[in-house]
């Protein structure tokens, strides 16, 4: 189920708009605001919301923190975590990617709760929620801007909320195995033509297979490379013929 997104006591309308836009980007539409500032159509909230100004933002619900706790499976976002289980208000925690995996099995209504720009969620608030989520960042400066934190988190949760992106299916474009094997054959022929020592041939071919096995080339890429290797083989063969003829004399 697509989670709702709640912001507790946001001070900057622009951050509300930024989060609404991120929700629209990643397939979410249920925005909750706890004690928000006033903002209208001419505010930064609408200016920063992009296309979310037409649906996500104007359809927000103003709620209390108590209502979130009472009606949802709650996930509190925090930049600062405890180091171990001896202090358990902010521990244990999940990263956004781990959260996406765990929420796949949750069928109840869920809400992601983001705190205030200056100091996030309080310990008292976090003690009342079901689980904690934190974005891995530099230990010297782990605090992200509220809008940034929400964007990163919602991006990681896109597997739960976005059925289709604007990106093509890269895996579908991978060259057929027969095409790739044809390239390997052409490359093997080239090694023989240029006089690569026989004892190195198997090792070289294994390295080439590993490189292209990791690269997942497209059909067009492998066809182009095979053509280049074929022409190199032809040139090498042609340049070798006169020398062979001179040596026979």
Descriptors:
249 residues; alpha/beta; six-stranded parallel beta sheet; 10 helices; 10% strand; elongated; disordered C terminus
Overview of the molecule:
The chain has 249 residues and is of the alpha/beta class. It is 47% helix and 10% strand. It is built from ten helices and six strands; from the N terminus they run βαβαβαβαβαβααααα. It has a six-stranded parallel beta sheet with strand order 3-2-1-5-4-6, with helices on both faces. Helix 1 runs parallel beside helix 6 and helix 8 runs antiparallel to helix 9.
- Silhouette: elongated
Instruction: Give the overall average pLDDT.
Output: 88
Strand content: 5-15%
**Largest sheet data:** 6 strands, parallel
Rg, Å, rounded: 28 Å
Order of helices and strands: EHEHEHEHEHEHHHHH
Residue runs with pLDDT of under 50 for 5 or more positions: 244-249
Give the spatial strand order of the biggest sheet. Answer: 3-2-1-5-4-6
Structural class: alpha/beta
Distance between the termini: 81 Å
Tally of individual helices: 10
The total of beta strands comes to 6
Helix content: 40-55%
Summarize the structure.
This protein has ten helices and six strands. The chain has helices spanning 13-25, 44-48, 65-71, 96-103, 123-126, 146-156, 158-161, 177-193, 198-215, 219-248; strands at 4-8, 31-34, 61-63, 73-77, 110-114, 131-133.
Write the layout of secondary structure elements.
Layout: E1 4-8, H1 13-25, E2 31-34, H2 44-48, E3 61-63, H3 65-71, E4 73-77, H4 96-103, E5 110-114, H5 123-126, E6 131-133, H6 146-156, H7 158-161, H8 177-193, H9 198-215, H10 219-248
Parallel strand pairs: 1-2, 1-5, 2-3, 4-5, 4-6
Helix pairs in contact: 1-6, 8-9, 8-10
